[in-house]
Structures are given as C-alpha cells and as structure tokens.
Amino acid sequence: MENERRQKRSDVPSTAIELALAGAKYRSGAHACLIADQQGFLLAGTGDGFNLDNLAAFASVGRPLASEDEKAAQGAALQAESISFGGSQFHYASVGGTPGEAQGVEAAARRLFEEKP
What we know:
Blueprint: H1 13-28, E1 32-37, E2 42-46, H2 52-61, H3 67-73, E3 78-85, E4 88-95, H4 102-113
Antiparallel strand pairs: 1-2, 1-4, 3-4
Helix pairs in contact: 1-4
C-alpha cells in the first residue's frame, strides 16, 4: 500500500487551497500564509491573530505589516512572491518562516483551479 503524503484533503477547491496554505505555513514555520489577487484582495489564507485582508492588501503593494499585525508577527517580516494559475497573476505571501513554499502553493492552485483537459 502506498503512503499518502497528504493527511488532510478535500474535493472542495476553496477548502483544498486552505489546506495547502496550512501545509505551507507548517513546513516553513511561518505565522501566516495567504494568496491575494493583483488588487490586494484575499483569496485564501491561514494565520491566527492576523488581519488576513490587511496582509493581502500589503502583499500586493509591497508594504510592511500594519501595526495591529506586528505584535502577532513577533518581529517577522511580510514576504511576498508572484505566482500564477488559471491564466492570472497572484501574490503568495507569508509572515516569517523560511522561503520556498510559493512554488508548492502555486502547483496546488494550478491543480485545483486550472481547467482540466
């Protein structure tokens, strides 16, 4: 029997992408992870104690954390990278943690949201 690497899964795309973000948050040690569109609107995210809508807006324009999120971040910076899926550009952002999860989140989003042949 093959060992399934994902312990939690969902056939509902919105739940599945949140599970992918939770996995990225766990693996990287980040305080919060999210996906925002180019206008700064939150698509999905995870992170207790953060205003994820604010983080999404700040990630889209490269601004630092808002004062209300600084305490929860415990000195960690907001990091953002561009990702693409479904023919559009988005931002993957995290607060703290090690970089390197954007590609995995992008791959998960492509599997979930791009049209299947």
